[in-house]
Amino acid sequence: MNNDQLRILVVDDEDQLRDFLTQGLLSSGCRVESTGSASRGLEMIREGMSGEPWDVLVTDLNLSDHDGIWLLKECRKLDPELVVLIITGYGSVESAVEALQLGAADYIQKPFKLETLMLKLERSRQSQLLSRENRLLKRDLALYQIYDMFMGSPDRDKLLDITLHSLKHITGAAGIKIKLKDGTQKNNPEWKDDYELLALQASLESRGNNYGMIYLKPLEGALNADQRTGLALLSKNVSLALENLDLMTDLKERMEQLEAQRSDLLDSYKYAVLGEISSSLVHEMRNPLSAITLGVEYFGMCIASDDKLQKALGSISKSVERLNMILDNLSLYSKDSSGPKSTVLLSDVIKKAVGLVNYYLAGKKVKLEITYGDYEKPVMVSLGQIQQALVDIMVFQSKRLAKGGDLKIAVEHQAEEMAITILSPSLVIDQSELEELTEPILTSWGPGRDLSLNLARRLLEENNCRLQVRSSPAQGTGFELKFGQRY
Question: Do 103 and 150 fall within a single domain?
């Protein structure tokens, strides 16, 4: 992304946070303006439409005159292609999910670092360009007759069938064979063999990419000038169609990946609801933490050559990280959500939980490995509760693997029970600490206390599942979940 050409409008009614955010984006090479009012922000978007439109709108979810949802709706009416990022400091992300459903490109939760914001800007901008490229591609494809012919079923076999039919009209009686680079091929009945001398061939090539060849054996003399011209034009159209097919396939895969990521993100909220008692505390603490985080980062860039001040700023950053860890622990304290039990395969639950944890692990050096046994017996459990418990356990282990490591997950049938083992070979936890973390009675929260394993144990017990935890320097830390037969 070329930051020098990126125009960003920041809307936030907290002066300090808005100033730090604006200065940080300016220092990254973006062209930035800001305002503290949603109404003024909408007016600036409208003014930009008549001159130089804005590329990105970064707005807080809660503003003094209107909320960010209102501003999102009004801006999308003016400029449907505007990239909108929502900033939220609330413990609950329901409003952020609503914003995504209304067309926001992404959301970012307070406190955050400038590099996190820039990464989300990059992804959102690329998604916008991808959608625009898709629209232009469809427009360009409509220019070619060969595309119009297979528009209803855009696949290679259909294209090759149409090409054979067209070649027959161009060349008359001839043996025809079309062979693509990936091994796909088509030939008509007149093509008898491959070893005879070929009379003519045409390359299927576009923009330096070779897609294959057309081979011809005229049965009634050599091709005339008109036939050769027709063959060249058809080869060009087929080459463009093959190129466009590859582009369409690539675009479809990218859009499916983006949709899958968004779907996983939305699903994760169903199983990670914040406790009501923590939401107000999280909100009140994350606003000042955001200002401190951005301020420290910006000051660090300004005094890069002063080692003493850099060291002091490092101490502040560690304190902020410690406070943020407390907020993370509060966020993992989910409300009990008992749901109906159903018969499921643990491998399916594992796949879904791993998908959610992979989103959390983005950018971290933690590798997940999954193995399944030869035989799997269905179990009767609450799908949401077991998935939440697995997410809590894997996130707990991943947070402890600060320098990276492996999580080895195995699903197997043991005697009359199904079992899941989650092993961290490089993670060692002191036994006294482990007993405290996994005690069966859910105790009150205290500074530095992680409640995720308490929550996981409660959810597992409600599903007739026993949790055992072992940790040693020789074998690492392993969590074993055994599902009994009593329903």
Answer: no
Cα Rg for the chain, rounded, in angstroms? Answer: 30
Q: Which residues contact 433 (CB under 8 A, 6 or more apart)?
A: none
| pLDDT band at 272; cut points 50, 70, 90 | very low
Query: What's the rounded Cα separation, in Å, for the pair 85 and 125?
Result: 11
What ranges in 105-151 are assigned the alpha helix state H? 114-141, 145-149
Q: Does residue 402 lie within any of the structural domains?
A: yes
- Complete DSSP assignment for 146-196: HHHHTTTS--HHHHHHHHHHHHHHHH-SEEEEEEETTS-EEE-TT---SSS
User: Same structural domain for residues 29 and 157?
Assistant: no
Let me know whether 101 and 186 are in one domain. Answer: no
CB atoms inside a 10 Å sphere around CB 485: 11
Q: State the residue for tokens 């008898």.
A: 192
Q: Quick check: 470 and 478 in contact, CB under 8 A?
A: yes
Cβ atoms of residues 214 and 122 within 8 Å: no
The distance between the two most distant Cα atoms of the chain, rounded to a whole number of Å, is 92
Query: Which DSSP category does 274 fall into?
Result: B
The whole-angstrom separation of Cα 248 and Cα 262 is: 21
Domain that holds residue 419: 342-483
C-alpha 445/C-alpha 39 separation (Å) is 41
Closest CA to 468 of 452, 484, 459, 457: 457
Average pLDDT, the chain: 77
- C-alpha to C-alpha distances, 480 to 382, 386, 388, nearest whole angstrom: 18, 13, 16
| Domain count for the chain | 3
CA dihedral (244, 246, 252, 257) in degrees, to 10, reads: -150
Q: What confidence score (pLDDT) does residue 481 get?
A: 92
181 with 216, same domain: the answer is yes
What is the residue-wise DSSP string for 420-469?
Answer: EEEEETT----HHHHHHHT-SS-PPP-TT---HHHHHHHHHHTTTEEEEE
Q: What is the dihedral of CA 217, 219, 222, 228, to 10 degrees?
A: -60
pLDDT above 50: residue 338: no
By three-state DSSP, how is residue 28 classified? coil
